[in-house]
Amino acid sequence: MLRRRSESRLIMSSSCCHSSTKKVHDTCPECEKECFPVSRQTMLHQLQFPNNQSLPEGDYLFCANQHCTVGYFSISAVIPKSQLRAFQSDRKPMLCHCFDISGPVYRAALADGTAKAIKAFVVEQTKAALCACESRNPSGRCCLADFRQMEKAHDC
């Protein structure tokens, strides 16, 4: 179930690829990595049933550290990744949740020279407003920056 948290900063909710995201940050209560705000919509779509039906009101942040057990946290609650649909033990680390592209698949595509077409598809769908980042991505954020980060790491 939900665990309580005593302190945090008040945050604003984030939005998808097509609008600006207010950059309010806090650190995770477990791993102390920087975290980002998420909307209530993201939370409701990411929490497993029945936890999504008893989500306490408030502003939440998402911890993207894959090795951390904290999924979301607020001033009054900590929600573990084990309660999130996207973090089941049988899932691969995802790069693009909207179009089901895993990090390992994109890394392999970078290595074999086929990554350009994959990224072009995601960019095209995003420009056409056919992505669903706010509800499908646990961070509620667009993945295009993650593609660039993975490309930079590959070029190093």
Please tell me about this protein's structure.
With 156 residues, this protein is an alpha+beta fold. The chain has two domains: 26-87, Single Sheet (N-terminal domain of TfIIb); 94-155. The protein is 29% helix and 14% strand. The chain is built from five helices and seven strands; from the N terminus they run ββαβββββαααα. The protein has helices at residues 40-46, 103-112, 115-127, 133-136, 144-155; strands at residues 26-27, 34-38, 60-62, 70-73, 78-80, 94-96, 101-102. The strands form two sheets. It has a five-stranded antiparallel β-sheet with strand order 1-2-3-4-5. Strands 6-7 form a two-stranded antiparallel sheet. A hairpin with a 4-residue loop joins strand 6 and strand 7 (101-102). The model is unreliable at 1-16 and 18-23 (pLDDT under 50).
In short:
The chain has 156 residues and is α+β, with helices and mostly antiparallel strands.
Question: How is the secondary structure organized here?
Answer:
Layout: E1 26-27, E2 34-38, H1 40-46, E3 60-62, E4 70-73, E5 78-80, E6 94-96, E7 101-102, H2 103-112, H3 115-127, H4 133-136, H5 144-155
Antiparallel strand pairs: 1-2, 2-3, 3-4, 4-5, 6-7
Helix pairs in contact: 2-5
